[in-house]
Amino acid sequence: MSLRSSGTTCAVRGCHNNRTKQNMWLKQECYDHKPLTKSQCSCPQWFSFYRMPTAEEDRRIWLRNLFLKKPPKNLFVCSFHFVDKKPTAENPYPTLWLGYYRPPEKKRRKLHRKDTNTVSTDECGDTSSEALAYCDAQTRDGSNTGRP
C-alpha cells in the first residue's frame, strides 16, 4: 500500500511526514488506553503541522533556514523541526533536522562481472573437461608450456 500525500507535507528536505501518515497513526489503537484509538485518547499527537508566518521578516528567516528559494504556495513544517515541538516566542523558527546537515547519499557504481565459467575454444583449442582443467591451471600459474 503506498502512502500518497494529501497535500499537507512537511517542506523540509528529506522529511516524509504528511497528513496521510498522521491520519493513519490516529486510527491505530492506543497501547495505554487499549479500547480507544489514538485520536480518542489523551496521549499527545505524534507530530503536527505549522504554517509559515505572515510577517515578512519571519518568512525570510524560515525560507533561509529551510534553504527554499522557490517555496510552495502553502508551506508547512512538522513539529519535529522545532526545539519546543511548536513555534514559541523563544524559538519561533525551525532549526532541527533540516536535511542539509546529512551528506548526500553516494550512488554505488554497478559492477559488471565477467563470466569465468565459460572458456572459448580460441584460448585452449579444445573444449573437453580435461582440456578445460588444463587450460585453467595453465592460466593460473602463468606458464604457457605444452602438456607434460
TrEMBL record:
Keyword Zinc-finger: yes
Region (Disordered) location: 107-126
Residue spans of biased composition, Polar residues class: 117-126
Pfam families in the record: THAP
One function term, GO molecular function aspect: DNA binding
Keywords: DNA-binding, Metal-binding, Zinc, Zinc-finger
Protein name: THAP-type domain-containing protein
Organism: Culter alburnus (Topmouth culter)
